[in-house]
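Section 3.1 - Work completed
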Amino acid sequence: MAGIGRVVLAWRERLLRLQPRGPGTLTTTLRYPYEVRQEYFEDIGGRKVAPAMLDITQGIIGRTRALRQSREMKRFGGHNCSLAQTAGR
């Protein structure tokens, strides 16, 4: 679960992702598309991923998703209240 916010740091407005972490909050600075240099991503599209690596990655994502959903179920008493589902209401 995460929230999005804006804050002014160093005389500039910044976009933030806020996530609860124990008694505190994890804050991550996000970038607008015009702030990202495209030359860093030019060679990504031409790479091939080995099928075994893809299977491993999909397994990790599946386990992480299941763990997150079970934590949400415990936290919200059986009601699945993920941010994606509540945003549409």
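Second construct:
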Amino acid sequence: MTAKDLYNNIQIHQLDTFVVALTKDTTSVFGSVTPQSNGIYKIEYTLSSVGIWRMDITIQINGLGSPLQILNSPFEVTLD
């Protein structure tokens, strides 16, 4: 995932805190988010069953304040 501002500039400071939650029916899984470099974050998760999952990503800008839903979230993830 690449962090960008409203003007599509890559956010290279790596200070933002992301939370990735995947849900299917009554099951929830949280992913781990690791900063890589130049605004890129690696998301890893393990799903427990096949099917369509909902992925919600929230951000705490600079790790402060209330979490905000990122643009276009939620996403759909399919495990075959």
